[in-house]
Design brief:
By secondary structure, this protein is an alpha+beta fold. The protein has a domain at 2-98 and 122-158: Aminopeptidase (3-Layer(aba) Sandwich). The chain has helices at 32-56, 66-71, 134-146, 160-170, 214-219, 229-239, 243-249, 264-269, 277-280; strands at 16-19, 75-82, 90-105, 111-125, 154-156, 175-176, 182-185, 208-210. The protein is globular and about 55 Å long. It binds acetyl coenzyme *A (ACO). InterPro entries: Atat (IPR038746), GNAT_ATAT (IPR007965).
Amino acid sequence: MVEFRFDIRPLFTQPIVKVTSNLLPHTFRGDRRQCLDATSKMSEIIDRLGQLSANAQKLNTPVTTAQRLRMSENQTIYLLADINQGNNGAVIGLLKVGTKDLYLFDETGQTRKVENTPCILDFYIHESRQRAGLGKDLFETMLADEKWTPIKCSVDRPSEKLLGFLKKHYGLVRTIPQANNFVLYEGFFDDGSSSAATKQTNGAGNGMYITNSPNTQLFGATYLGEENNKKRMQRHLEATPNLASQITQISPVGRYGARRPTCSMAEIIHSGTTPTKGAESGRIS
Ligand SMILES: CC(=O)SCCNC(=O)CCNC(=O)[C@H](O)C(C)(C)COP(=O)(O)OP(=O)(O)OC[C@H]1O[C@@H](n2cnc3c(N)ncnc32)[C@H](O)[C@@H]1OP(=O)(O)O
C-alpha cells in the first residue's frame, strides 16, 4: 500500500475518486488555497502510483503522470484508497482511461477509423492487495461511470495479468489482431449501431467508417450504423449503370496507385503511343 507524508483522507471522502485534468478529486469542495494544496497532493499521489505501475510493468517511463493528466483533454484517472490504513490512509490502485481516434482492423481485416474509442490506458493495484477483487471494484466503478462495456474497450498493451483479469471477470479471450499496440476483443464491432461505446457523442454519429475503399471514394464515408446504407448504395448503382464498372476502375491508393514508369521498349514498338496494358506491366505481347 502506498502511504504519504500527508493525510489523504480529505482527498478521499469516498474509497474511489475520479480525477481529470484539473487534478482535483471529483468530490472536492474548497477555496483557492485548499484547491492549490489538493492539486499539489493529488499530483504527488498520481506520480507515485504511476511510477509503481511502470515498475510493475517494467516500463522505462510511466504512462501516468500528473503532468500528462493536466495536459490531457479526455483522460480520467480513478484512484482507490483505504482510508483506514495507518494514520494517513493509503492509496491502493489506479486506473487511467480515455478516448482516442484509432485506425483499427475489424474481424474481416477491414481498416476502420473509430472515433472516441474507449481505451484502458493504465491499471495498477498495489502488490500487497492484488488478487483480492479490488481491481474488479475499480474497473466496475469506471465502467458504470463512463457507461462503457468491457467488450467495447480497447486496451493499450495489456500485461499478462491484465489479460488474465479480463478473461476471468469478463470472459474476454478472443482478440482481433491489430497493427498497433491496442488489443480488441471479438465483439468490439458488433451490434447494429456499431457504436464503440454507448457514450459516443461526436457529430458524426457513431463515428465509425470504412476507410480507403473505392466505395468511400465514390460515396464518401459509409456509416456502418445506418441500416439503409446497403439499400441506398444498391439504389444508387441501379440508377447509374456504369457506376459498378467505375468502382473497379478507380485507381487504388498507396503503392498500388503510384504512377508506373514508362516502358521505353513499348514506346519504340508503339512509336511513342501510350503503352498497352501488357507493355505497361513489362511484358511485350
Ligand atoms: C493497459 C494496462 O494498464 S496494462 C498493465 C496492467 N497492470 C499490471 O500488469 C500491473 C500489475 N498488476 C496489477 O496491478 C493487477 O494485477 C491488475 C490491475 C492487473 C488486476 O488487479 P487485481 O486487484 O489483482 O484484480 P482482481 O483481484 O479483481 O482479479 C484477479 C485476477 O486478475 C489476474 N491477476 C491478478 N494478479 C495476477 C498475478 N499476479 N498473476 C496473474 N494473474 C493475475 C488473474 O486473472 C486474477 O484471477 P485469479 O486470481 O483467479 O487468477
